[in-house]
């Protein structure tokens, strides 16, 4: 996530690669890299009662990160990444207002004026470390927990490589080498898409 920063508020382009992984695979990765910090994540994904955001492929969420409430909007970019706006806010309604002040699409407030519903969720523990490479810096994140959609639950075991600075190509090369070494399985869907699928909506 390459961002511009103003106090607790962020806007930038997100580029990341995800892989499915077992507990044993993540333990092996942690043994080979240093500097991990633990973050407890509790994420709720929202849409309008009419499901106005899903057809646009917009992801609106509120995430508690070690007890801090962070609201974010992600929309797809033409280059395969995503533009993300992120801000601290106590709830999703005030979060939407703050996200629009940061430059999120103005139509967001109009779209959600009729209210928002919690659609699905994710709860997991993340072990995260910054890795400095020759042509980029990435965050290596190891996530273990579960996804929830309606009454259905799916276990989550995921390795994520997220670009912080530098080139997409360098981050991709690192991620592919990691996947080869630890026999990770590529995951093309976001946590939101997988949780949403549990509801039967897609």
What is the first-to-last residue Cα distance?
A: 27 Å
Query: Overall mean pLDDT score?
Result: 92
- Number of extended strands: 11
Radius of gyration: 17 Å
> What coarse outline follows from CA principal-axis ratios?
globular
H/E topology pattern: EEEHEEEEHHEEEHEH
What is the helical fraction, as a range of percent? 10-25%
Main sheet makeup: 11 strands, antiparallel
The number of helical elements comes to 5
With strands numbered from the N-terminus, the spatial order across the biggest sheet is 1-2-7-6-5-4-8-9-10-3-11
Low-confidence runs (pLDDT<50, min 5 residues)? 1-9
As a percent range, the share of strand residues is over 45%
- Kindly name the structural category: alpha+beta
Written description of the protein model:
The chain has helices at residues 23-32, 92-102, 107-111, 168-182, 191-198; strands at 2-6, 9-14, 16-20, 37-47, 59-65, 68-76, 82-88, 117-132, 136-149, 152-166, 185-187. The chain is of the alpha+beta class. The model is unreliable at 1-9 (pLDDT under 50).
Indicate the topology.
Elements: E1 2-6, E2 9-14, E3 16-20, H1 23-32, E4 37-47, E5 59-65, E6 68-76, E7 82-88, H2 92-102, H3 107-111, E8 117-132, E9 136-149, E10 152-166, H4 168-182, E11 185-187, H5 191-198
Antiparallel strand pairs: 1-2, 2-7, 3-10, 3-11, 4-5, 4-8, 5-6, 6-7, 8-9, 9-10
Structure in a nutshell:
With 202 residues, this protein is an alpha+beta fold. It is 24% helix and 49% strand.
Looking at this protein, list some descriptive labels.
49% strand; eleven-stranded antiparallel sheet; single chain; alpha+beta; 202 residues; 5 helices
């Amino acid at each position: 996530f390459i961002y511009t920063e103003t106090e607790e508020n962020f806007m930038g382009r997100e580029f990341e690669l995800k892989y499915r992984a077992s507990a044993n695979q993540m333990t092996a990765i942690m043994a080979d890299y240093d500097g991990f910090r633990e973050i407890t994540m509790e994420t709720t994904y929202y849409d309008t009662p009419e499901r106005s955001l899903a057809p646009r492929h917009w992801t609106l969420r509120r995430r508690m990160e070690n007890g801090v409430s962070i609201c974010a909007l992600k929309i797809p970019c033409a280059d395969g990444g995503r533009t993300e706006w992120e801000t601290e806010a106590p709830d999703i309604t005030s979060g939407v207002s703050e996200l629009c002040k940061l430059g999120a699409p103005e139509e967001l407030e109009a779209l959600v004026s009729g209210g928002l519903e919690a659609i699905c969720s994710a709860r997991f523990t993340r072990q995260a470390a910054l890795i400095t490479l020759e042509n980029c810096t990435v965050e290596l994140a190891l996530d273990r927990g579960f996804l929830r959609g309606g009454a259905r639950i799916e276990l989550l075991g995921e390795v994520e490589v997220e670009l912080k600075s530098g080139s997409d190509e360098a981050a991709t090369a690192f991620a592919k080498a990691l996947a080869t070494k630890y026999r990770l399985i590529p995951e093309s869907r976001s946590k939101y898409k997988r949780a949403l699928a549990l509801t039967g909506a897609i």
